[in-house]
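Help needed: design a sequence for this.
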């Protein structure tokens, strides 16, 4: 598993892929937070990164599939997956190695955003940032990225076409993140049913963790979704 992880990290950072991902994420977030009217934190007169944490999932929803689309699809297309299967590695070790590499890349993407925290603290004249809510928001963002990574890796395992893998995984991430929330707003679901439908979506649990209280139910939800998609991926590649 360790060798697979190192191989994937080298693939991400031996070319411009990993670096472009970090720069793009920071660039898009910076433009949204500091330049665009209506979302600029400079106009809010309040030390908060709420705008960042509400917008970041939408960027990661496309960034993570773009990073992950080649992970298994190119292995199938080039025929190297058959060579990989001859190694003394189980299907779980192969998938976990690739998955951990993606998570490490996500850490490299998210950690530089601490610059936003330092900027807000510098600009704040009286009350600083709510530390509890900030930690919870970062934990929620990482868990959300972990789910998107598992979904994208799974979709990459169903096709040898990287573009198709990107489109499918982006759609599934969108559906899991906002689909249930949108469905709950239908007039059909009233009288409390809408609340339970929202609970199936990532957005519900992401907002819950972002309040600064790490609820066991939210952690179990994220862990279950991640395990489900990794299990599907393992079952899929085991048949090849």
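Sure. Designed sequence:
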């Amino acid at each position: 598993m360790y060798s697979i992880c190192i191989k994937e990290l080298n693939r991400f950072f031996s070319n411009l892929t990993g670096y472009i991902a970090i720069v793009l994420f920071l660039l898009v977030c910076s433009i949204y937070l500091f330049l665009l009217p209506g979302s600029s934190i400079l106009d809010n007169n309040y030390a908060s990164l709420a705008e960042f944490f509400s917008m970041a999932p939408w960027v990661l929803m496309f960034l993570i599939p773009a990073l992950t689309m080649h992970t298994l699809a190119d292995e199938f297309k080039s025929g190297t997956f058959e060579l990989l299967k001859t190694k003394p590695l189980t299907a779980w070790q192969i998938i976990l190695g690739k998955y951990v590499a993606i998570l490490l890349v996500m850490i490299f993407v998210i950690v530089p955003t601490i610059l936003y925290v330092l900027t807000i603290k510098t600009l704040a004249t009286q009350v600083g940032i709510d530390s509890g809510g900030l930690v919870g928001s970062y934990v929620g963002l990482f868990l959300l990225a972990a789910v998107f990574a598992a979904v994208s890796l799974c979709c990459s395992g169903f096709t040898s076409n990287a573009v198709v893998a990107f489109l499918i995984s982006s759609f599934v991430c969108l559906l899991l993140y906002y689909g249930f929330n949108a469905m709950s707003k239908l007039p059909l679901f009233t009288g409390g049913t809408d609340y339970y439908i929202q609970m199936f979506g990532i957005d519900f649990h992401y907002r819950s963790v972002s309040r600064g209280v790490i609820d066991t139910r939210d952690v179990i939800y994220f862990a279950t979704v991640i395990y489900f998609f990794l299990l599907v991926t393992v079952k899929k590649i085991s048949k090849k």
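The chain has one domain: 2-22+47-238.
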